[in-house]
């Protein structure tokens, strides 16, 4: 059974969707630990309530970014994970960290990458007037919010959207595609080739692009 560690910084709604998917049997894995860089991260309570061990590596205790990264990597390694999942983890991780977890470190980002890397993606999508927006799960590389894409979901941007309504529409899809990506990883079906992800043995219903509806959902 694949062991998964999840890193969070706050609310933890993606964490919850992953915990639910494991509990329902749709992800063949064990979530062995949840780590946060903030002691107040709400998701820590969610994990603890499910009996998942938690740990805090507070970035404010470290003067140098590299020292934080090293302490975080050591804390993760104690759980001996096969996969490390960034679920709303709001710290930039350095090259050494990324290299240490190469090909077993994934992230979810609230945009259709490579559009809108970085912060405030929904605000920027609205400002650009794009008609389509969404979210992406990708392998993490040293390049911020880049890296081989595993699955994306697209949603429409509606004329009366504000940041909150658009964020909610995207988040509903995040809760759908992250469990899917983790399931594929755990099933050993993600092959990396020349910086792209190939889904092995696709089954009926598998799609690396989810486009649920063209009207509000
Ligand atoms: C999500 O929108 C995720 O894509 C982004 O941060 C948010 C975290 O939300 N990186 P939650 O903590 O999973 O509820």
UniProtKB/TrEMBL annotation:
Catalytic activity field: N(1)-(5-phospho-beta-D-ribosyl)glycinamide + (6R)-10-formyltetrahydrofolate = N(2)-formyl-N(1)-(5-phospho-beta-D-ribosyl)glycinamide + (6S)-5,6,7,8-tetrahydrofolate + H(+)
Ranges of residues in domain Formyl transferase N-terminal: 4-182
Active site: 109
Pathway(s) this gene product operates in, as recorded in its UniProt entry: Purine metabolism; IMP biosynthesis via de novo pathway; N(2)-formyl-N(1)-(5-phospho-D-ribosyl)glycinamide from N(1)-(5-phospho-D-ribosyl)glycinamide (10-formyl THF route): step 1/1
Coiled-coil stretches noted in the UniProt entry, renumbered to this chain: none
Keyword Amino-acid biosynthesis: no
GO molecular function, one term: phosphoribosylglycinamide formyltransferase activity
Site residues, Raises pKa of active site His: 145
GO biological process: 'de novo' IMP biosynthetic process
Record: residues binding (6R)-10-formyltetrahydrofolate: 65, 90-93, 107
Binding site for N(1)-(5-phospho-beta-D-ribosyl)glycinamide: 12-14
Protein name: Phosphoribosylglycinamide formyltransferase
């Amino acid at each position: 059974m694949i062991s998964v560690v999840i890193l969070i910084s706050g609310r933890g709604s993606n964490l919850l969707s992953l915990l639910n998917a494991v509990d329902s049997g749709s992800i063949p894995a064990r979530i062995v630990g949840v780590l946060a860089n903030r002691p107040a991260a709400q998701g820590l309570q969610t994990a603890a309530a499910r009996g998942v061990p938690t740990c805090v590596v507070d970035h404010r205790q470290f003067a140098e970014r590299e020292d934080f990264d090293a302490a975080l990597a050591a804390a993760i390694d104690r759980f001996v994970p096969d996969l490390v999942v960034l679920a709303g983890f709001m710290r930039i991780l350095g090259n050494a960290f990324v290299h240490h977890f190469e090909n077993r470190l994934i992230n979810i980002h609230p945009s259709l990458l490579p559009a809108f890397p970085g912060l405030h993606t929904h605000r920027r999508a609205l400002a650009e007037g794009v008609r389509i927006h969404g979210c992406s799960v990708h392998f993490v590389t040293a390049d911020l919010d880049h890296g081989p894409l595993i699955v994306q979901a697209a949603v429409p941007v509606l004329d009366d959207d504000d940041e909150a309504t658009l964020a909610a529409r995207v988040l509903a899809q995040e809760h759908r595609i992250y469990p899917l990506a983790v399931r594929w990883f755990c099933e050993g079906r993600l092959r990396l080739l020349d910086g792209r992800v190939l889904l092995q043995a696709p089954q009926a219903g598998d799609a690396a692009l989810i486009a649920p509806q063209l009207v509000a959902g």
